[in-house]
C-alpha cells in the first residue's frame, strides 16, 4: 500500500486526528549536538501506521532524548557520587543541561530497559567458555564467584514523611508516584561474577532479589557463556549456605566448590583470638599452624589438631570457640581440600569477586545515599554492564532498536 500523507486530510477518523495536532507543532529532542526542534509532515498508512524512518535515521525515534544523550547520562551517573554532581559534570564536559532529577529518571529508565534486554537474551556476552584457556595448550577454565552486599535503602517510614512534606497536589498538575519504601534501612544485594584465570574476561550480574532470583540468573548466564564447554568449572565463594544451595541446584555441572581461603582464615583467627591474647606470639603461631596444615596436609589433619587443642582447655568460652571452628570445617570438608585444588592449579581465593562487590557498590554507598529498589537495580545493572565489557554492545543494540 502506498503511504499517504497524514496532512492535510481534515475528515479522517479519530485515530488520525490525534496525530494532526502533534505534527503541526515542533517537538523538542535533546541530542549530543544540542536541542533539535522537529516540525514536519508525518506519513501514515492503515497497515504500517506512522512512518518514522527519518526519526530513526537521526536517532530521535526513541523519545525526546536521543540515544547518544542517554548514553552520556548513564556514563556520568555511574561514575559520579550523586546525580547532582553528575548533572554538573555533564554540563561542563558535554554542554548538556539536564537537571539532576531528569538525569535520575533517564538513568533509572535506561537501567530497567537494560534488565529487560538481558532477560530476553538480546545482548550477547563478551566471551564464552571457549575463550577461557589458561595457556595456548592449557585447559579451558571458568570460575564463578558470588556474594552478598548490604545496600542502604529508603524505608517506608521515611517515605511517609516525604509524602507529608510534599503538601496537597495542585489542581491539574502531574505528580510522580513514590515507590514503596523498604522494610529495613539496609538490604542485601546478590552479586555474581564469571571470570577466566587472568580475569581478562568477566561477566558480572547483580540483583536485589533473593537467593532464588540469583540462582536463576546464574543459570541464565552460565548458559549464555556455554559453561559446559569449559574443561574445568570451579566456584570460589565464602561457604554461605544459600550460596552452596544455589550453586548445587542451578550449576550442577561444576567440578568443584572451593571455600575462599581468606574466609577460612577469618574463622581460624576468631578462634585463636579467643583462646590466646590477640596479637600474642601464641595467637599468631596457632593461626599459622592451622592454615599451613590446611593448605599443605589436608583438612583431616586440621580437625585432629583442633580436637587435641580443645582438650587442653577447661574454660567454656575457649572450648566453645574451638568447637564452633571444628563444626564449621566439618560441614565444609569437600570445600576445603586445598591440597587437591592447588595441585590442579585452581585459585583458592575469591578476590576477583570481592573486588567486583566493592566496585559495584562504590557508587551507591556514598555518604548519606539511600535508594529505592528500582533505582538500585538500574544503577547496578549499568555498572555491571561496564564491568562485563558489554557497554558498547548494549548501546549498539539500542541504536538499532531506535
Write the layout of secondary structure elements.
Elements: E1 4-5, H1 14-24, E2 27-31, E3 34-38, E4 43-45, E5 49-51, H2 53-58, H3 67-79, H4 83-94, H5 100-119, E6 141-152, H6 156-166, E7 186-195, E8 202-207, H7 211-224, E9 232-237, H8 241-250, E10 256-259, H9 261-275, H10 281-296, H11 299-310, H12 316-330, H13 338-343, H14 351-362, H15 373-387, H16 391-401
Helix pairs in contact: 3-4, 3-5, 4-5, 5-15, 7-8, 9-10, 9-12, 10-11, 11-12, 14-15
- Strand portion, in percent? 5-15%
Query: C-alpha Rg, in Å?
Result: 28 Å
Rounded mean pLDDT score: 83
- Which secondary-structure class do the elements indicate? alpha+beta
Secondary structure tally, helices? 16
Helix-strand string: EHEEEEHHHHEHEEHEHEHHHHHHHH
Shape: globular
Terminal CA distance: 24 Å
Give me the oligomer status.
single chain
Count all strands and give the number.
Answer: 10
Could you characterize the architecture of this molecule?
This protein has 402 residues and is an alpha+beta fold. A hairpin with a 2-residue loop joins strand 2 (27-31) and strand 3. It has a five-stranded mixed sheet with strand order 8-7-6-9-10, sandwiched between helices. Helices cover 50% and strands 14% of the residues. It is built from 16 helices and ten strands. 32% of the residues are buried.
Which properties best describe this structure?
402 residues; three-stranded antiparallel sheet; five-stranded mixed sheet; disordered N terminus; alpha+beta; 10 strands; single chain
Amino acid at each position: 500500500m502506498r503511504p499517504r500523507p497524514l496532512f492535510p486530510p481534515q475528515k479522517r477518523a479519530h485515530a488520525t486526528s490525534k496525530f494532526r495536532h502533534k505534527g503541526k507543532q515542533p517537538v523538542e529532542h535533546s541530542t549530543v549536538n544540542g536541542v533539535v526542534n522537529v516540525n514536519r509532515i508525518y506519513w501514515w498508512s492503515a497497515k504500517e501506521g506512522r512512518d518514522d524512518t527519518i526519526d530513526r535515521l537521526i536517532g530521535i525515534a526513541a523519545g525526546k532524548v536521543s540515544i547518544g544523550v542517554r548514553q552520556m547520562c548513564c556514563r556520568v551517573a555511574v561514575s559520579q557520587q550523586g546525580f547532582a554532581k553528575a548533572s554538573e559534570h555533564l554540563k561542563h564536559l558535554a554542554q548538556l543541561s539536564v537537571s539532576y532529577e531528569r538525569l535520575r529518571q533517564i538513568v533509572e529508565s535506561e537501567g530497567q530497559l537494560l534488565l529487560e534486554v538481558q532477560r530476553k537474551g538480546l545482548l550477547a556476552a563478551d566471551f564464552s567458555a571457549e575463550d577461557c584457556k589458561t595457556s595456548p595448550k592449557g585447559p579451558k577454565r571458568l570460575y564463578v564467584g558470588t556474594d552478598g552486599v548490604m545496600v542502604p535503602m529508603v524505608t517506608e517510614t521515611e517515605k511517609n514523611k516525604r509524602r507529608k512534606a510534599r503538601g496537597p497536589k495542585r489542581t491539574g498538575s502531574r505528580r510522580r508516584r513514590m515507590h514503596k519504601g523498604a522494610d529495613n534501612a539496609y538490604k542485601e544485594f546478590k552479586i555474581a561474577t564469571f571470570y577466566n584465570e587472568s580475569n581478562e574476561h568477566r561477566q558480572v550480574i547483580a540483583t536485589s532479589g533473593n537467593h532464588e532470583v540469583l540462582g536463576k540468573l546464574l543459570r541464565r548466564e552460565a548458559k549464555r557463556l556455554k559453561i559446559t564447554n569449559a574443561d574445568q568449572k570451579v566456584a570460589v565463594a565464602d561457604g554461605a549456605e544459600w550460596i552452596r544451595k544455589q550453586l548445587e541446584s542451578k550449576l550442577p555441572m561444576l567440578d568443584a566448590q572451593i571455600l575462599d581461603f581468606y574466609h577460612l582464615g577469618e574463622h581460624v583467627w576468631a578462634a585463636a583470638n579467643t583462646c590466646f591474647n590477640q596479637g600474642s606470639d601464641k595467637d599468631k603461631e596457632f593461626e599459622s599452624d592451622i592454615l599451613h596444615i590446611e593448605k599443605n596436609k589436608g583438612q583431616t589433619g586440621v580437625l585432629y589438631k583442633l580436637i587435641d587443642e580443645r582438650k587442653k582447655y577447661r574454660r567454656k568460652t575457649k572450648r566453645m570457640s574451638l568447637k564452633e571452628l571444628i563444626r564449621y570445617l566439618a560441614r565444609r570438608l569437600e570445600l576445603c581440600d586445598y591440597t587437591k585444588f592447588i595441585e590442579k592449579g585452581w585459585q583458592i581465593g575469591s578476590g576477583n569477586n570481592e573486588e567486583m562487590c566493592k566496585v559495584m557498590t562504590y557508587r551507591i554507598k556514598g555518604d548519606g545515599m539511600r535508594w529505592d529498589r528500582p533505582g538500585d537495580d538500574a544503577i547496578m545493572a549499568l555498572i555491571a554492564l561496564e564491568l562485563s565489557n558489554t557497554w558498547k554492545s548494549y548501546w549498539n543494540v539500542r541504536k538499532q532498536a531506535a
